[in-house]
């Protein structure tokens, strides 16, 4: 039955991806929700939550806020919070509630800009897309709102985009605000699907390469291999000589995909791909092993936090 | 208990029909509640001498948690209990959710159990645009739907959509279409057009309300024609309809 999952839990959604990108950048992050989404973002989708501080607030929407669309109240509360902490920007991150009541992010941004000089980022996540799309939206907002035209980094430098904990656990690499301001002359290393989405949508030159994938480049990768993880994770191994197909629950860009690669969405898609593909080795999060009890080849665990919450 | 929801195209006279029907029920000795389910909150104004009741959403917005029916209602002509859901500023928030919140509150306050009305009238926004606006016809609320229309093309088009929407809900145990109230605008061939529509959609015309200056003059004085000009042809039509609905409910 399509859409029914017996093993996998729902993957990290777009609002979690957006917050993951912004987490360590020193901004005031306001998740426009009743509280549950913020709870999930911090409690389930953010491995840094126990160890590193970040100013993440829930808008704490209640029935009357949704019914009346009290934008002024949200603006007031946000500006008040921003005045009490030292923050470098304000980011408004959407969830299903504002998506349903058609919250106008541009209007919120304009209203807030009249009350503060802080840059305002708006990320209209809706909880119905997956985390990589939320990450790409957040990167794009950082570049568009903070980017300084004509003040490009004069030195050839590299900026790694998309190496967040949701894809790579504690092998993450944050961007800095300075990097996002001076992207103009930078070479983008797109470390995951969100990095590719970002670079392509901004028309930036990039190389798709995931450093965290390199540790899987061992002699265990024998025969025909299926990698079910992020597309760039798979591409990196392929570029290093591994004969593999990519399966991904997340975005599979035309620029990355080769014959045999597949974007999958159902548990059965993965099971079928493994059983019909004649693979000798499967590289995927351990939680997916339960979907292929009849697979006789080698299974290599490659955790993906967005899929299993493991790292 | 007779529970009726009035639907129809915006501006077709739903509030006028609803208020006059409520007044007619009251005149026949029935204990009536009228609930306006339009964010404009103007359904019951002509039962209240032109003085509007504060809408429920306005009360909740102020952080008040009402504990009695009296806090969210006003008594109007014939002791009719008047309630308005109200809603957000146009263009903001979610009006449908506002109706749901109001209905939840009415349930919590045990409106029907405690007040024990004979008749409950729901005056609903022009069209069933989302789940919130279908709330008045869900199980436990209205059991009969009356659709107000004239012979004008767009009014009949909206009436057709409402008929279809109500039919779509049949397997959910929602209300059924009881009939059409023809609110005459004196367009050419009006009665024939509405009769043809009724036949096509398998519904009956339950009342034909004449175009009447009496209605307009009474509304200018903040009252229904049943209150202000009870002997007029229009008022008598409302009273006859109310009696038929009572008889049909027995």
Structure description:
The complex is a heterodimer of chains A (311) and B (250). Chain A folds into three domains: 14-145, 3-Layer(aba) Sandwich (Rossmann fold); 157-212, no CATH class; 213-308, Rossmann fold. Chain A is 35% helix and 15% strand. In chain A, β8 (225-228), α11 and β9 form a beta-alpha-beta unit. Chain A is globular, with a radius of gyration of 20 Å. Chain A has helices spanning 14-22, 36-43, 63-68, 71-84, 96-100, 105-113, 131-146, 165-168, 177-181, 193-202, 231-239, 267-277, 305-308, and strands at 28-31, 55-58, 90-93, 120-123, 157-161, 186-190, 206-208, 225-228, 244-248, 262-263, 281-284, 298-301. Chain A is of the alpha/beta class and 311 residues long. The model of chain A has no long low-confidence stretch (mean pLDDT 94). Chain A contains 13 helices and twelve strands. Chain B is α/β, with parallel strands linked by helices and 250 residues long. Chain B contains ten helices and eight strands. In chain B, a hairpin with a 5-residue loop joins β3 and β4 (81-84). In chain B, α1 (14-27) crosses α10 (233-249). The longest helix of chain B has 17 residues, at 233-249. Chain B is globular and about 50 Å long. The termini of chain B are close together. The relative contact order of chain B is 0.19. The interface between A and B is medium-sized, with 11 and 13 residues.
Key terms for this structure?
heterodimer; A: 311 residues; alpha/beta; Rossmann fold; five-stranded parallel beta sheet; 13 helices; 12 strands; globular; B: 250 residues; eight-stranded mixed beta sheet; 10 helices
Describe the structure concisely for a colleague:
The complex is a heterodimer of chains A (311) and B (250). Chain A is α/β, with parallel strands linked by helices and 311 residues long.
* Inertia-based shape of chain A: globular
Counting DSSP H or I runs of 4 or more residues, the number of helices of chain B is 10
Structural class of chain B comes to alpha/beta
Termini separation of chain A comes to: 30 Å
Main interface pair?
Answer: A-B, 11 and 13 residues
Q: Please identify the top-level CATH class of the largest domain in chain A.
A: Alpha Beta
| CATH-assigned fold name of chain B | Rossmann fold
The neighbouring-strand order within the major sheet of chain B is: 3-4-2-5-1-6-7-8
* CATH homologous superfamily descriptor of the largest domain in chain A: Nitrogenase molybdenum iron protein domain
